[in-house]
Specification:
By secondary structure, the protein is α+β, with helices and mostly antiparallel strands. The protein has helices at about 15-20, 155-160, 165-170, 175-190, and strands spanning about 5, 25-35, 50-65, 75-85, 90-95, 105-115, 115-130, 130. The longest helix has 15 residues, at about 175-190. It is globular.
């Protein structure tokens, strides 16, 4: 059994344009290790969420936002963990989101945040050799990576390179992703209809 959840995001996840506007690069990564983190306090002792940290090694980078720094070659980030119940441990995921497992290679949009490098939300596809898979967790891929599903890495590179970023995101490109989106959104709102 897998447990699925939902939450609010600090960046938009509507299209590939959002990825090239607010992520820093699209790369092939391999998940090389994982470890459980301490569960947040105050949880129901009958059902505890245990977050997880995964370490990834970055391979080929297919696209990088102009002016963006390159990611570290290897870094750790928080990933979906599990829910522990008496006599059961259920992996947690999100509908349309890839669950990162040790030994898997994925195509992943990466973003540098204040706390370090991590995956851009809803923008990871597992790889089968040098092709992306057609679905994520048995579902159609999220709109951020739908145009990349079922494609070779060469095709992915061409598609991502051709995607157009939000001009306001480009204007605020020196800010971290969430702040970039907030600044672009404020400017859009102040311009009016």
């Amino acid at each position: 059994m897998e447990v699925y959840g939902a939450g609010s995001l600090a960046v938009p996840v509507e299209s590939l344009s959002d990825v090239v506007s607010y992520a820093d690069q699209v790369s092939v990564v391999e998940v090389v290790s994982e470890r459980d983190l301490s569960p947040p306090g105050g949880q129901n002792p009958e059902e505890d969420y245990v977050p997880r940290e995964v370490t990834v090694v970055v391979g080929e980078t297919l696209w990088r936002r102009p002016g963006a720094p390159a990611s570290d070659d290897r870094f750790s980030m928080v990933a979906f963990g599990s829910v522990e119940r008496p006599n059961e441990r259920a992996p947690v995921g999100v509908v349309g989101g890839a669950r990162l497992e040790v030994g898997e290679s994925c195509l992943m949009a990466l973003a540098q945040r204040k706390e370090g490098w991590g995956a851009y939300p809803m923008s990871t596809l597992e790889l089968d050799g040098d092709r992306t898979v057609d679905e994520v967790g048995g579902q159609a891929p999220p709109p951020t990576v739908a145009p990349l599903a079922g494609k070779s890495l060469d095709e992915v590179a061409d598609i991502v390179q051709a995607a157009k970023p939000d001009p306001l995101a480009v204007k605020y490109g020196d800010l971290p992703p969430a702040e970039r989106w907030q600044a672009a959104d404020r400017e859009r709102e102040s311009a009016g209809p």
